[in-house]
UniProtKB/TrEMBL annotation:
One of its GO terms (biological process) is tRNA methylation. It comes from Bhargavaea cecembensis DSE10. It catalyses: 5-hydroxyuridine(34) in tRNA + S-adenosyl-L-methionine = 5-methoxyuridine(34) in tRNA + S-adenosyl-L-homocysteine + H(+). Keywords: Magnesium, Metal-binding, Methyltransferase, S-adenosyl-L-methionine, Transferase, tRNA processing. This is tRNA 5-hydroxyuridine methyltransferase.
């Protein structure tokens, strides 16, 4: 069975989403809005159910799809999500207003790289799904807002397969972005404070958990 057949098979096992959620998925396809692939979204939701974060910070709202999916899958969890594009902000507000978790989702309007005032932490999960060439900057700015048990999730690590391509085979317009994404991936995998794993689901999902402190052990 080929890789795309596995993906089609696994997606076929996913139960239908509420009609308004499937309408958002169709809207994203029709208007070429980059939302999380269904297989990756379902995997992320299941991991979050295990983690049970009280507060999630999302970088990159788009139309509000993933923020809504996370909040509705985790009763009691608050989601703060940041979006810079005015058109996406308006569509996200509209979709959030129809969500069953409307009161637990807060949209921050602005560029996540240029906010004068950051959202108030701590957060138990940081979900990065915005400009792929800026993942390292997003990490540097928002990682300090994580709680002691905080987990970082990064989507689109495969960038539709381009991350694994020979640099000469990558379209010139994408080369800098892919180079930065690769550099971020390698840097995070070797980070002394985090254990990371790159999961081949959806378009590639990186999960990074804080390492246990070894200070006490080192002192013994």
């Amino acid at each position: 069975m080929m890789e795309h057949e596995y993906s089609r098979y696994s997606e076929g096992l996913i139960p239908p989403r509420p009609e308004r959620i499937m309408a958002m998925e169709q809207y994203a396809r029709d208007h070429r809005v980059p939302i999380m692939q269904l297989e990756g979204m379902e995997a992320l939701l299941q991991i979050l159910r295990v983690q049970r974060p009280g507060r999630i910070l999302e970088i990159g709202t788009a139309i509000g799809y993933s923020a809504i999916r996370m909040a509705e899958a985790l009763p009691g969890t608050e989601v703060v999500t940041i979006e810079r594009e005015p058109a996406m902000q308006e569509k996200a507000e509209e979709n959030i207003g129809r969500s069953e978790a409307e009161g637990r989702i807060r949209l921050v309007r602005g560029d996540a790289l240029e906010l004068e005032k950051l959202p108030e932490g701590p957060f138990d999960a940081l979900f990065i799904d915005a400009a792929k060439g800026q993942y390292r900057r997003f990490f540097d700015i928002y990682e300090p807002l994580l709680s002691g048990r905080g987990v970082i999730y990064c989507d689109n690590m495969f960038m539709h397969g381009l991350s694994a391509e020979d640099p000469e085979d990558i379209p010139r317009k994408n080369r800098t972005m892919i180079r930065k994404l690769r550099e971020f991936t390698e840097w995070l995998m070797a980070h002394p404070g985090y254990d990371s794993a790159l999961l081949p689901v959806g378009d590639g999902l990186m999960i990074s958990t804080k390492k246990e402190s070894t200070e006490e052990g080192a002192a013994l």
